[in-house]
Amino acid sequence: MRVTPGIINAQLANDLQTALTALATQQQLILTGRRINAPADDPGGTANALVVRSRQAANDQLQKNIAIARGSLGSADSVLRSVIDGLQQAKDVAIQGANDSNDALSRQALGAQVDQILEAMVSFGNTRGSDGTMIFGGQEVTTAPYAVTRDVNGAISAVTVNARGIDGQMRAEVADGLTVAQGVSGNIVFGAASDPTNVFDTLIRLRDALDTNNAANVRAELDNVTAGHDRATTASVLVGTRLGWLDTLESRLKDDAVTLATSLSSIEDVDMVKAISDLNQIQTFYQAGLAAGARLLKQSLADFLS
Amino acid sequence: MIYPTNLLGTLDLARRALNAQQTAVQVAGHNLANAATPGYSRERVDLVTSPNRGGVDVGSITRLRDRFLDFSLLSEQQTLGKNQAQEDVLQRLQAVFNAQPGEGLSADVNQLFQGFQQLSVSPTDQAVRVAVADAGARVAQTFQLMRGRIDQLKTDVTTEIQQRVTEANQLITQIADLNRQIVGAPPTAPPSDLLDQRGVLVTRLGQIAGITETDRSDGSVQLALTGTGVLLVDGRSAFLLAATLNGGTDTVDLTAGGSLAVLPKSGELSGLLEARNLSNGSIKQAAADLDTLAGSIALAVNRLQASGTGLTEFTTLTAANAVSASSAALTAAGLAVTPVTGSFKVIVHDATGAVTANVAVPVTAGTTTLDDVRTAINAIPGLTASISGGKITITAAAGSAFTFAGDTSDTLAALGLNTFFTGSTASSLAVNPLVSGDVTKIAAAVADSAGLVHAGDGSNALALARLSTKLALGSGTQTFTDFYGATVASVGSQMRTATEGVSRQQAAVQVVQNLQQQVSGVSIDDEMINLSQGQAAYTAAARYATTVNAMIQTLLDVVGQAVAA
What we know:
The complex is a heterodimer of chains A (306) and B (565). Chain A has helices at residues 5-32, 43-98, 104-125, 186-190, 199-211, 215-268, 272-297, and strands spanning 146-150, 156-161, 171-175, 178-181. Chain A is mainly alpha-helical. Chain A is rod-shaped. Chain B has helices spanning 7-33, 67-97, 105-121, 126-184, 192-209, 268-277, 282-306, 370-378, 411-415, 433-437, 459-465, 480-520, 524-564; strands at 43-49, 56-63, 211-215, 221-225, 231-234, 237-238, 241-246, 251-256, 260-262, 316-318, 342-349, 355-363, 383-388, 391-396, 401-405, 421-422, 430-431.
């Protein structure tokens, strides 16, 4: 093989260029910390990373949904506690009112207490959550679920439910394809309007019985009040169970988030130890190449002929 | 060898030796001077002993060149040119799809579906609705931007093709001219430097256009486009290339010699033309993929939006899309989305939200016309419909409002009635101004079976959010993200292949260039040796001439003395 300076020069230029390209690539790897800086670096990995990121985004959103659902269920839970307390009080009043030792006057006083409880129940039923929506209105979040009719004295004579229906549920997706109701319908808490033992009708009848000193009717409503109390307690347990479930789901989503972050890192991130040791190696080669080139380039026979 | 028989002849021998060595030194000098000239072939002086007279003569000056290496270099250079052109285009195409982690189209699409998800949980939250409309607008903008950059790339490549054609034409003309000079050169003076110059031009032309070179006996070369045999240079005739943009087929058409349509098989032009013209070439494929993605996102979202209801309903609504003729079947009325057989429900509510009409409008593919739809809607109490400019307008009686539900016929999405997006391609996608202008129109809810709509119903928004995991593309195998990922991966892997092709081809070119250098390259050491050798021989010949001269002097002295005596 005949070697000319042209061959050496071209070879050297080529090798130095290769080394320099490798240096630049390696430097980019280390500076960005990412092994994929353009789709061509790893086409399959790029596509996988997009999918993982989209799952991460979905996971984030599910966690947000859980937070929102927890907020509205939490509001429902605290109102439910007040409802239960109120109905407990109504139960006590009914038991007291049923006692034959009461006269008409003391029963009227008890009736006034029941009236207050009734007012409170309607107000609880129409509670708005932190986002301004009706907690017990089902999907009818902008209309108060319970409307009252008052008699000439201003006392509640009837409670009517939003005719558009309050059984629909606002639902939040909390896991892939899985939704939970964000609240609980007023029908479950207070009993449906079609049910004569619903809390409002029961309390109206109890108050009227006490007002009219009708001990038999008071006794008759005692069971209904107890049933109403139990119904509210059941609703509270339901809400509590859902809240607990949300905690379980959330911790699973957080586990998933860690897994997703790990797999994204394994797709995209640079192994720093390896990258830096590679950089050192490439640098060594590059410097050696420069040194060899510097020696070779400046020599020819012309330097030695006199 | 026959020796010269007289002293004067001997002096002539010295003269020719001096001449020959001087030529050797000159050639060494020429070689040294051109040591770095691209395409230069070193020359060698072939000295021969003079027959009959004795001494030395310059037999010939040989240009050291291996034609077979020339041909194989030409062929390797063409492939390299094609690879480089492909890499260059793909690099710019890749830049369109390259995004920082968590940014780019895929992230924007995620954001939109996250927005729908959030809306499903808080359907009455105005801020969430604004965020959804914004996310939709960003998706549309990103599509438009990317599509715009691809179109720009297409324009740039067109310009590049034209520049390459101009350069190729200059080369073709120059080569034909060099052919003329080479053929016309006197046989005594072989035009080796012209041959070198022509070699350089041919190699560059090959890099651009992909040519096959054939030597003719008169010293000229014939150049034909590889694979097609179409001549570019034949002797002193030049056949020029021309590139014209064909708007109809959206291609750049190349012709040679005035009219002959050609498609180079290698060289930069081949890489550029393939990327620019082929419908499955990198540029058009990427543009088509973006259009497909934009179209299917728009259709999927619009289908659900059209069958759902926002927080407020319509008192009047005009379709976004016009039909070509209101008496033509909807399936043949030039709509971007083709309706299918099915029906959609129109629901009318009074001021209290109570249902006053809940009517299904049937649509039969190939039969139902926009006129039919108008008639059907006109028959609904409380609604009037009219058609103007191919667009249907529906108006509710005072105090009423209407909405739609359960569209199984895609008619609403096709006509652009109650849609989220307008447009069906990457470059035309936009959020429906009705939605961006009034975010309460985003259909988070869907009317229940009785036709009632509840403000807290987020079921339609949830269905919209779930589109993100729906296998909507690739014959039901890919989600939107999968499809986009495949598009990006395809551009990336083409880029990777091109880069690998370039580096492999560069190595191949280097090998041939090395071989060529071994034959034709100037070695300074060699030439220094030749120079020293020539110098020494010249000195020796001069000394010889001096000696002969002294001998003649001696002879003359002897003869002079004899005459004197």
